[in-house]
Amino acid sequence: MKLYLLLLFIFSPIILFSQNSGTERRTILENHILRVGVREDPPFVIKGIDGTFYGLSIDLWHMVAEDLHLVYEFVEYEHMPGLILGLSRRQIDISANPMPVSSTRIRQLDVTYPFMTTSLGVVVLKDKQDQLTIFFSNLFSVGFMKLLFTLVIIVCLFGTLVWWVEKKYNAKDFRDGIEGIMDGIWWSTVTITTVGYGDKTPKTTIGRVISMVWMFVAISLISSFTATITSTLTLNQLEAKIKSVSELRKMKGNIGVTAHSGAESYLLKHQINPSTFSNPNEGLLALESGKIVAFVHDKPIMRYLIKERNGEDLFEISQANFKQNYYSFFMPRNSKLYKKINSEIVDNIDKDSWHRLLKKYNMDEIN
């Protein structure tokens, strides 16, 4: 008994110190306030009138932080380069602003699992012309006139050929001189339109063989011509025509992008020098005022902003998908919380609550 009391007297200070030390470490960990970098960038980060932040990525961060019992505060940045610099210098612990993943950023920072995949789109002004004006502008367009001229040339060639074969043996239907040539062109026109008046008919064997060839050629030719006319004179102006980078390069006027964005890098890579704006809303204003002819940015973000501005009747987004972007959270290199936060992101984007968030911010149509 005396031995037990002696040992208890010797080791109790050590045990008490160990317990106090562990409690102190837990208190420090629990009281550590994470600094979360943010920059206003709807719909991911939106700043309310009262100065609070909300948005798609902010709400996702709330879900992650709640699951991990993290204490945090938001640190606002005006520009994206400042936010990235803050991460590099460990002035903040994580960026709640999602950024496109690039090889440079992967080398410099820790990149979480991407919670969203988007693609670049081109925003242009909708054509405000009335349907009659559009019809006549298409009717007298260079493409349509070339098509019509080609058809006239083919009709004249077959008509002249039949006249040249028939004029010696069928002078009644195919006369000499200019009048006879016009007889041949009349015959080929009546044949291609399948009217079939029968007032001019080849009599010679060669003439009839040419006529048979012309009839079969006319069937395929008139079908192709009709389809082309339908597409050329279409009145549907609801979709942007930009389908490739080469078409962007041929546009007459400046093309806008958000500064330091994936869209800017993409256009510069394809030898297009764009006009830069601090945010997409400034780009839309420039597009509306005519300072630029197109604005390139992530399609779901532009769809959200256009809807928020009630600009569906003013702007349209190309159906073509350009460069794909993978959006992730970024953290300083070798962050101790990286694995835990990354796991929570993967878990949360599989939940129904995440899909409700996408719908809430009009981001459920990703492409």
From TrEMBL:
Identify the SUPFAM superfamilies for this entry.
Periplasmic binding protein-like II, Voltage-gated potassium channels
Name the principal localization, coarsely classed: membrane
Q: How does it sit in the membrane?
A: Multi-pass membrane protein
Q: Which UniProt keywords apply?
A: Glycoprotein, Ion channel, Ion transport, Membrane, Receptor, Transmembrane, Transmembrane helix, Transport
Localization per record: Membrane
Transmembrane feature ranges: 139-165, 209-229
Quote the Gene3D superfamilies the UniProt record gives.
1.10.287.70, Periplasmic binding protein-like II (3.40.190.10)
Q: Which GO terms describe its molecular function?
A: ligand-gated monoatomic ion channel activity
Which PANTHER family would you find in this protein's record?
A: IONOTROPIC GLUTAMATE RECEPTOR (PTHR18966)
* Name of the protein described by the UniProt record: Transporter substrate-binding domain-containing protein
Native organism: Flammeovirga pectinis
Show the taxonomic lineage: Bacteria, Pseudomonadati, Bacteroidota, Cytophagia, Cytophagales
